[in-house]
Every structure is written in C-alpha cells, then in structure tokens.
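Try this one yourself first.
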C-alpha cells in the first residue's frame, strides 16, 4: 500500500466515522420534520436492539433511503419503487443475511438493514476514494493532484448521500473502478464493472460514451503506427482488423453496460403489464398504504396501466414523468429558485472546468482529442495535470451531466448526481487549490509545516507517515487564499448541513 493510498484511507475512515457520529447526534437533537415522504408501516415486532440501532442510525433511513430499505426487505411492490435500481438493495439484503445474520436474534430485518447501510456504505465509500485516486493517477499523470483530489472527495459536498441509505457510494466505486480498468486497457473487465454500475443507477448508461471514445483513441493510435510500419496488403489487413475490433468492442461493450437497465425495465413490464400477483397475497397494512397514498400495485385481476400500451413501454420513464414530474425545463419555476441556489456551487465548478480546459486546449477540444497536430502533443506523453489531453473526455462527460441535470432533473440533485458520477468536480477543485494556494507550494511557502510531505525522517531510519494537505490547511484558515476558503468552505458547509437537514427530513440537495 502506497503512502498516498494510506492517507486517503485514513482520512476517508475519519470522515466516515464523523459522519455517522454527527448524523446520530443531529438526528437526536433536532426534531424530525413531518415531510410527505414514503413511509411504509413496520410489519415486524421490534427485537431487543432495534430501538438502539434506530436511535443511532435512524437518520440514514430518511427520504429516498426508505425506498431502498423497503425494496431490500419486501422487494418491488409499488410501481414507484421501480425508480430505484436493484443492486444496492441486493447488497444490503446480502449483508443482512450473511455478515449480520448472527444478530438475527436481537435485530429484525429492518435493524440489520440499517446496520448494513452504515457498514456497507462506509466500506464502499473508501473503495470509491481509492478507485478515484487510481483513476486520477492514470489520467492526470500528477501524483499531487491525484492525492489532493481524492482527499477532497472524502469531504464531498454530497457526503450525506454517500453515508445514508442511497446508492451513490456503490455507484461511485463501480464507476471510478470501471473507468480505471478502461484506462489501463482491461476493456472486458471495465465493461463488466460499468455494467454492474448500471444496475445501481440509471445514469450508468452515460458511461457508454467512455467505451466508445477511449477504444477509438487506441484504434487511431494503432492506425498511425501501422501507417508508418506496414505497406501494401499488410497495411489494409491491419487497418481492417483495427476497425473490426473497434466495432466489436463497441457493440459488445454497449450491450454489456446497457443489459442491466434493459433487464430491469423488462422485469417492471412483466410485473405490471402481465402480472401474476393478486391483491389478496399482499399484507393488509401495505394495501392500506397504497389505497391511502394512491400507489399502484400489480394485480392480475385488474386492467394494465396505460404506459403498457406505449410503443416503447419504459416503466422508468413513466415513473419519472408521473411521480417525480421530471422533464425538460419543468423545474424552471420561481418557487424553485432556492433549489437552483443549492445546486449553484456544483454547477459553477462544472462550468469553470469546461471553460478552463477549453482555454488551455482550444485546438484539442475542436479536434475532439482524436488526433494530434504535432510531436509535442502526443497522447502517450501527455502534459501532467488537469490540462492533460486525456482529461478531455471526462470534461465532456461532466458537461453532459451538468446540462442534463440542470435542464431535465430536479436541479438540487445536481450535487450528488455529479459528485458520484464524475471525477471532474474534484479534479478542478484540486487544480484550483494547487495554483492559488501558496501554502501548498513546496518552495514558495513561508510556512514549511504546510508542505506536501510524504514522510518524516527519524534518527533510527525513515518512519513513513502519510501526510494530509487538507488537515494541514485548516489550522491556517485565516492565512489561506480566498480560493481555498471558498472551496473548503463549500465542501465542509455542505458536508455538515447535509447531515443536519437530510437526517431530520428537511429538504436538501
């Protein structure tokens, strides 16, 4: 284990522990708001430790987390449950029935699922932080920037959603890990990993863009090599083989990544359009909730819903349209201005990233990064840092997420949407810190205690201790640059406010 990874794991572990502690204290200190949120009745009698687990971890079960817990316990029962993809509930139920099974005499399934949320998301977050560091090292070719990006990720503004019963930590770990494998040339394993990510969140489909782009870069590089090293029929054969392999890779990879989404939509279609369940087999308490709230249940004796008659009967699109009112420009209303303000910092980072990258690489952006114009711009020897040519596709991906999230989604979701799907928000913030914060400069700083050191020497040898520039900057807050104060202020304030508000059923991003 390298020193940098150890520093990331140590800081990530501390932030996970603080998150769990703070959510428990804030949930106990602040009365819960009576929100009109999904709240299914409890059907099990509580056991000895359920009240303790509920007191300690109850804040992790609010808002959409209740859907995931319900699905993990009961399966997909109500129509709007299908807005939440199955991988995370499967992980939670798997932990509850295996690792936490010895506690079944003291905890109900609900209690074990809450414990699984705390343990599972903490482990998945640490895995995602390490995956982000590995991806950053490969793409950025800059150790300091990769380390700082990963440490900032441990203070992510979407922290509460990485801790609570949401699928963001799972999706981030799979996405960053899959992209790392793709960058290293392990295309099939990358496709499998990114395909599994699509089973966690629907926006995993956007990762198909990486599969189409990165192998295309490799194919163009091979064609350039064959152009100078082969002749005649051999050149034609090599060109043909490169193109065929690219097409096969693209088609197979796209199918693998899209398969979980398609399979889940088919499952939803079979559940409601050709149901095999009668209402008599559903517990009366859950039936009463459906009647009171207007939730649709599958019923073999009733008529199918209208969306089943559409040419492309996608349940996910129907749910987003009817239950969440998601659609193009639907959120552009005066009453939503506070939510736009909540999303503004993350949107600003996304805009700054694309602007700074285009200003530094206008020719590369116009060429879509697909071919080089000179020997000094070879993609196999890129300029280290955020302006690296390999960052181009990630900036495009981040910009696409930003545009879609702003125009077509509930805009307050933008913070967690981008923070769990793209490394760019953390790359641009780390980049801004390194170029604007004198205390992070090795030789120009007058405060040597705030340098990026990787070890401390001792008289009896070299004792390696991981160094964290974030924790070194915080005691010098007043002397930090305005850029540093804005970035760390944004990250830490959202980190804490999210725990205080979300865990008490108050609106948050």
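Now uncover the answer:
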């Amino acid at each position: 284990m390298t020193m940098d990874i150890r520093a990331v794991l140590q800081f990530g572990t501390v932030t996970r522990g603080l998150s769990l502690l703070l959510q428990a204290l804030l949930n106990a200190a602040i009365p819960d708001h009576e929100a009109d949120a999904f709240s299914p009745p409890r059907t099990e009698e509580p056991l000895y430790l359920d009240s303790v687990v509920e007191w300690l971890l109850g804040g992790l079960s609010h808002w959409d987390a209740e859907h995931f817990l319900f699905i993990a316990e009961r399966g997909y029962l109500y129509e709007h449950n299908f807005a939440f993809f199955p991988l995370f509930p499967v992980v939670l139920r798997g932990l509850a029935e295996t690792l936490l099974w010895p506690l079944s005499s003291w905890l109900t399934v609900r209690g074990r699922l809450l414990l699984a949320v705390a343990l599972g998301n903490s482990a998945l977050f640490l895995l995602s932080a390490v995956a982000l560091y590995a991806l950053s090292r490969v793409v950025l070719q800059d150790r300091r920037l990769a380390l700082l990006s990963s440490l900032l990720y441990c203070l992510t503004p979407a922290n509460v959603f990485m801790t609570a019963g949401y699928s963001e930590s799972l999706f981030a770990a799979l996405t960053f890990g899959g992209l790392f494998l793709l960058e290293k040339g392990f295309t099939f394993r990358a496709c499998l990993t990114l395909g599994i990510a699509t089973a966690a969140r629907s926006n995993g489909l956007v990762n198909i863009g990486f599969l189409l782009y990165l192998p295309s870069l490799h194919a163009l590089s091979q064609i350039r090599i064959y152009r100078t090293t082969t002749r005649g029929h051999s050149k034609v054969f090599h060109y043909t083989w490169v193109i065929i392999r690219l097409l096969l890779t693209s088609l197979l990879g796209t199918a693998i990544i899209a398969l979980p989404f398609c399979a889940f939509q088919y499952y939803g279609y079979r559940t409601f359009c050709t149901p095999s369940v009668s209402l008599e087999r559903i517990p009366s308490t859950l039936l009463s909730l459906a009647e009171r709230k207007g939730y649709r249940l599958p019923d073999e004796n009733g008529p199918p819903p209208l969306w089943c008659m559409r040419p492309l009967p996608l349940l996910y699109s129907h749910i987003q349209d009817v239950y969440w009112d998601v659609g193009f420009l639907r959120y552009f209303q005066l009453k939503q201005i506070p939510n736009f303000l909540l999303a503004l910092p993350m949107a600003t980072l996304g805009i700054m990233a694309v602007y700074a990258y285009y200003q530094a690489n206008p020719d590369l952006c116009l060429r879509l990064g697909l071919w080089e114009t000179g020997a000094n711009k070879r993609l196999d020897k890129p300029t280290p840092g955020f302006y690296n040519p390999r960052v181009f596709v990630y900036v495009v991906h981040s910009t696409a997420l930003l545009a879609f999230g702003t125009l077509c989604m509930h805009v307050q979701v933008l913070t967690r949407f981008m923070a769990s799907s793209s490394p760019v928000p953390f790359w641009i913030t780390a980049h801004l810190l390194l170029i604007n914060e004198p205390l992070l400069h090795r030789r120009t700083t007058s405060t040597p205690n705030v340098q990026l050191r990787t070890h401390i020497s001792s008289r009896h040898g070299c004792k390696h201790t991981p160094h964290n520039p974030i924790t070194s900057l915080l005691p010098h807050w007043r002397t930090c640059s305005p850029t540093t104060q804005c970035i760390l202020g944004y990250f830490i304030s959202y980190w804490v406010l999210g725990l205080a508000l979300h865990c008490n059923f108050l609106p948050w991003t």
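Discussion: The chain is about 60% helix and 0% strand. The beta strands are 456-458, 461-463.
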